[in-house]
Amino acid sequence: MTTLADLAELVRAPAALSVPGDVVAGAAAAGALSRRTPALAGASVLLYWAGMAANDWADRRLDAVERPERPIPSGRVAPAAAVGLAAGLTAAGVGLAAAVGGRRAAALAVPLAASIWGYDLLAKNTAAGPAVMAACRGLDVLLGASGGRLTRALPAAATVAAHTWTVTALSRREVTGADAALPLRTLAGTALVAASAAVAAPGAGRGPARPVGLVAALPAVLAGWYATRYGAAQAQVVRDPSAGRVRAAVGAGITGLPALQGALTARGGAGLLGLAVAAAAPLGRRLARKVSPT
Q: Which of 36, 107, 147, 187 could form an SS bridge with 32, CB 3.0 to 4.6 Å?
């Protein structure tokens, strides 16, 4: 009998802590933080879980060889149940986004859902895989910005997308291990991502409410935290490009994303909210010891 623990493992439940920060960062950048932001974040989580379930359904035959302990090949979750759950979560995510955000949110949720399924079913094992997954995260950031000026959220969306590219590129070597060149490239990308998040947004801090002291430095502090944690894991892969090190770096990239999102949220002018978003990073690492995020 399938249990809730089996379903949590299927959708990699703890990794969902890396998702709401996309929406929050996008809303902060676009000046669109409002009561509907938490609901849009919930829609984002539903779509993320849908993608995880669809991913395992699409990979069920490969996992039977490489990861027989996963819920589907181990027999704990039936393939039909996994794809049905993925479809239901997709419909719920798109429906919730449309209900709370109207046409503008739906116009982003639909291509986001299509990109998620496109990655799982078509692009994952192709050269386009990292770019498609990066697009998913970028659209997720823009979903949060749907109630404001989307153009103002484009830099945040590009930053999260670039981070996602590095994690996805590494994840393709979780089983086989990597050559030393790959983590060097992703590490360089992480440095650029952190620098982008640390730099004040154009026009930020003007006017009578200009941030000072720690509040002004918060984006750089959180971006530095992100770079230190994720960068150290990638540096380990440079020294030892084994599959285990690669998986650890991928996990660090997933659980460390809230620190980057927090930096972007603070960069958008919501310092305390940025700290709250970043707080999901250590919680995600703790939960990842119970349920693997990769």
A: 147
Query: Which residues lie closer than 8 Å to 281 by C-beta, 6 or more apart?
Result: 225, 226, 229, 255, 256, 257, 258, 259, 262
Query: Is pLDDT of 206 > 50?
Result: no
Long-range pairs of 285-292 with CB within 8 A, sequence gap ≥ 24: 285/255, 287/13, 287/14, 287/17, 288/14, 288/15, 288/251, 288/254, 288/255, 290/14, 291/8, 291/9, 291/12, 291/13, 291/14, 292/9, 292/12, 292/251
Q: Which two tokens stand for residue 286?
A: 């703790």
Amino acid at 19: V
Burial class (CB in 10 A: 0-12, 13-18, 19+), 1: exposed
Instruction: Show contacts of 87-91: CB within 8 Å, 24+ apart.
Output: 87/50, 88/50, 89/11, 89/46, 89/47, 89/49, 89/50, 89/53, 90/46, 90/47, 90/50, 90/54, 90/116, 90/117
In this prediction, residue 211 has a pLDDT band, given cuts at 50, 70 and 90, of low
Asked if residue 24 lies in contact with residue 261, where contact means CB atoms within 8 angstroms, the answer is: yes
Average pLDDT over residues 75-94: 97
How much of the chain is in helix, strand and coil states, percent to nearest 5?
Answer: 75, 0, 25
What's the predicted TM-score (pTM) here?
0.91
Mean pLDDT of the chain, nearest integer? 92
